[in-house]
């Protein structure tokens, strides 16, 4: 099933065996050392590939933040239109790129900035077997903030995956998708962390700017209509 063009496909990610092994060694070392110091990243491959490999391993999930000093994540109650997201929990992702978006946005300097985003994989069934596509993304922030380039150096945290549950698949009129969002109702201590910069984010130029009032109106009119394009 072909998704609408506003969904951005992940860049080709097919690391060779040697690169994958180097990712695993670095992550294993970081998990052994703990989160006190950020990962000293010196590999030639871009950070998003390292983070994508980490997400594939399934022993950690990832959380992006502009705060580099979080010692423990506590469940919080967000305001969200989706049932799964509208719960008191610690939220994270089973994807390497999506958390980078949250990490590089300076929300302290732009406290009213509104975010609209997602990471999905399309579900298909072949010969009775459930298959997932490579990830697709949508990123949008308030247009006035985008015009000011609200980027900062942020942190992606590696959290133990044990207590997290995945968001159930979402069915629409034309496609079934699995989101990369996971949630834990328990407090979670990070196992490792890495610093990321705006230049590390592969979709910096694809972040859209939207009209907040228009977006709010479209959400109210159609709560299930994500991504509510609001660029008129």
Can you tell me about this structure?
- The chain is an alpha+beta fold.
- The protein is built from five helices and 13 strands.
- The longest helix has 17 residues, at 17-33.
- The model has no long low-confidence stretch (mean pLDDT 91).
- Amino-to-carboxy terminus distance: 27 Å
Instruction: Output the number of helix runs.
Output: 5
Assign an overall shape. Answer: globular
Rg from Cα: 17 Å
Mean pLDDT: 91
Q: How helical, in percent, are the residues? A: 10-25%
Task: Report the uncertain regions.
Answer: none
The helix-and-strand class reads alpha+beta
The arrangement of helices and strands along the chain is EHHEEHEEEHEEEEEEEH
Largest sheet: 7 strands, mixed
Summed up:
The chain has helices at residues 17-33, 47-57, 98-104, 143-147, 212-221, and strands spanning 8-9, 60-65, 90-93, 115-126, 129-132, 136-142, 154-160, 165-166, 170-171, 176-179, 181-184, 192-196, 208-210.
Characteristic key phrases:
232 residues; alpha+beta; 13 strands
């Amino acid at each position: 099933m072909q998704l609408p063009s506003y969904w951005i496909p992940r860049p080709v990610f097919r690391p060779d065996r040697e690169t994958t092994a180097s990712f695993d060694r670095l992550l294993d070392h970081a998990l052994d050392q703990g989160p006190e110091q950020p990962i000293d990243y010196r590999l030639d491959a871009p950070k998003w590939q390292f983070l994508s490999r980490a997400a594939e391993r399934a022993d950690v999930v990832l959380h992006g933040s502009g705060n580099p000093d979080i010692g423990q994540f506590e469940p919080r109650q967000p305001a969200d239109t989706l049932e799964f997201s509208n719960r008191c929990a610690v939220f994270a992702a089973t994807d390497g790129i999506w958390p980078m978006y949250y990490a590089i946005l300076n929300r302290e300097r732009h406290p009213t900035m509104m975010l609209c985003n997602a990471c999905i994989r399309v579900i298909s069934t072949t010969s009775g077997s459930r298959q997932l596509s490579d990830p697709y993304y949508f990123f949008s922030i308030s247009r006035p903030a985008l015009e000011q380039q609200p980027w900062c150096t942020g942190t992606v945290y590696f959290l133990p995956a044990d207590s997290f549950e995945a968001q159930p698949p979402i069915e629409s009129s034309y496609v079934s998708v699995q989101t990369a969002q996971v949630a834990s109702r328990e407090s979670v201590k990070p196992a490792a962390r890495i610093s990321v910069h705006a230049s590390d984010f592969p979709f910096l130029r694809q972040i859209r700017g939207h009209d907040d009032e228009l977006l709010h109106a479209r959400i109210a009119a159609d709560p299930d209509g994500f991504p509510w394009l609001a660029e008129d």
